[in-house]
Design a protein that fits this description.
By secondary structure, the chain is α/β, with parallel strands linked by helices. The protein is built from eleven helices and 20 strands. The chain is 31% helix and 28% strand.
């Protein structure tokens, strides 16, 4: 046998193995989805669609095809971009050759990303007037949600400012404070009066994404706005696998969410819609220099949304909020932080809540024994007709406390009891804490040495009267 023939045979064998593996993986990805009862194809939306994007480009990555289809059918589309994407140090370095960025360099990136978004969305037919840039700080919305809520305690972004420095901001000089972001969202919602609102999923691992989810849920709950809600993913593990331009491949939900029983909406794209989306992605020049394969991986045969399903808190029934598989915020950082011994105790198994006639019980379960030196946070927002109450419970060194982080904060309710047993923390509070509440937002976190190691999704529950 000649060398050429032998080489040809090996090449064919290797290619065959690759194709089989690729098909097997796709079948693995699709196995729990198609055919499935929890999937709807091309569901109908209303005539006024509001899209919330944490950064410039998220709207195109997740919904470039959906936007095209909506506009073709005569629907109105409004896009709101929460941050200017101006906190990406690597993007500053790669695009401008600056190794140690200064505030003005980050602002330059924010302006460029604004222009990229306008160019991309105009390709779909979205006019500049239909794009709202709020101008909040990239990588800073988690601070607005957790600690810089009040107007008198603004956050300072990497752009060097405690307010939006951009001329294109929805509100000029908008203070970097959580309550101001909520105010903007409520004003936009009430003015546009959407039939549908599309925003990030609570399981997204990027801080700016899950906090955008929390802010939207907060705004809707505060004004009790009735709207059809849809959610989307951008950052979760290796989603959207593979990270490369794959126009002939379908987009499947990540396996990490398989056990959560979510309802998915599948939107097939035409060849023209897919190509136009890919051309729009190529408008984000600053991002293509640092994460081209990831961005191009969203140009697929379809797009996916998660159908929102309301959750309720009936009396005498335990509501369990499961965590996705491998939802650690900083995967791979345990070793880096010297935390190898706390992995199991930091990984959340589930979070549950039960309303009884006299008590409200919140229980956190972890995969390993509870660690005395670990901070376990149970965060709740109670929505009343006359305002919001915030309760940020902390368990550290077997003691229960509450962080007074904003003007909405309240102390540990009198009569609360902490119980710790093996892999479980329970806090029993008097049911009076729920008095007058219409709904509540709940999520949990584990923190060690100032690092967040795991968290549950931030979910809204309606309180049954």
């Amino acid at each position: 046998m000649t060398v050429n023939k032998r080489l040809f045979k090996w090449t064919v064998l290797i290619l065959t193995i690759f194709v089989v593996l690729l098909l097997s993986f796709n079948m693995y990805q699709a196995g729990w989805l198609w055919p499935a009862k929890r999937v709807v194809k091309s569901p109908e939306m209303g005539n006024r669609i509001l899209i919330i994007a944490p950064h410039p480009d998220d709207e195109t990555l997740a919904m470039g095809g959906i936007i095209q289809q909506a506009l073709k059918s005569g629907k109105k589309v409004q896009v709101v971009v929460v941050t200017s994407g101006d906190g990406f140090s690597k993007a500053v370095t790669e695009n401008y050759g600056i190794k140690s960025p200064k505030p003005e360099d980050y602002q330059r990136l924010g302006i460029d990303r604004h222009n990229e978004t306008v160019s991309a969305l105009q390709m779909f037919g979205v006019s500049k007037e239909k794009i709202i840039f709020l101008g909040y700080p990239d990588k800073g919305t988690i601070k607005l949600w957790e600690s810089n809520w009040d107007l008198n305690n603004p956050h300072k972004g990497l752009n060097g400012s405690t307010f939006s420095p951009y001329s294109f901001s929805y509100k000029k000089n908008a203070p970097y404070a959580g309550e101001n972001l909520v105010k903007d969202l409520i004003q936009i919602i009430q003015k546009f009066n959407p039939t549908d609102i599309i925003y990030p999923d609570e399981n997204d691992q990027h801080n700016d994404h899950w906090t955008a989810n929390a802010f939207v849920q907060y705004a809707l709950a505060k004004i009790k706005y009735d709207v059809k809600e849809w959610r989307y993913l951008v950052h979760l593990g290796d989603y959207p696998w593979p990270w490369q331009y794959s126009p002939d491949l379908p987009l499947y939900p990540p396996q990490a969410l398989k056990e959560l029983g979510m309802k998915w909406a599948y939107f097939p794209l035409s060849t023209d819609e897919e190509l136009k989306k890919y051309q729009a992605i190529k408008q984000y020049h600053t991002q293509l220099k640092v994460m081209a394969d990831f961005l191009k991986g969203f140009a697929r045969k379809n797009e996916l949304l998660i159908v929102n399903e309301e959750m309720f808190l009936p009396e005498n029934k335990t509501v369990i909020l499961k965590s996705p598989v491998s939802n650690k915020i900083f995967e791979g950082r345990y070793t880096e932080a010297g935390l190898e011994g706390v992995i199991q105790g930091a990984t959340v198994e589930s979070l549950s809540i039960k309303r009884q006639q006299s008590n409200l019980i919140i229980t956190l379960k972890t995969k390993g024994d509870i660690k005395k030196e670990m901070l376990y946070r149970l965060n709740i927002r109670f929505f009343h007709d006359n305002g919001v109450k915030r309760l940020d419970l902390g368990v550290l060194n077997n003691k229960l406390s509450a962080a007074l982080a904003s003007s909405e904060s309240i102390s540990v309710p009198v009569g609360s009891v902490l119980s710790i047993k093996n892999k479980e923390i329970s806090v029993v509070m008097p049911s009076d804490i729920l008095k007058g509440s219409n709904s509540l937002l709940l999520y949990a976190e584990t923190i060690k040495k100032g690092r967040k190691l795991d968290k549950t999704a931030c979910l809204l529950l309606h309180v049954n009267k």
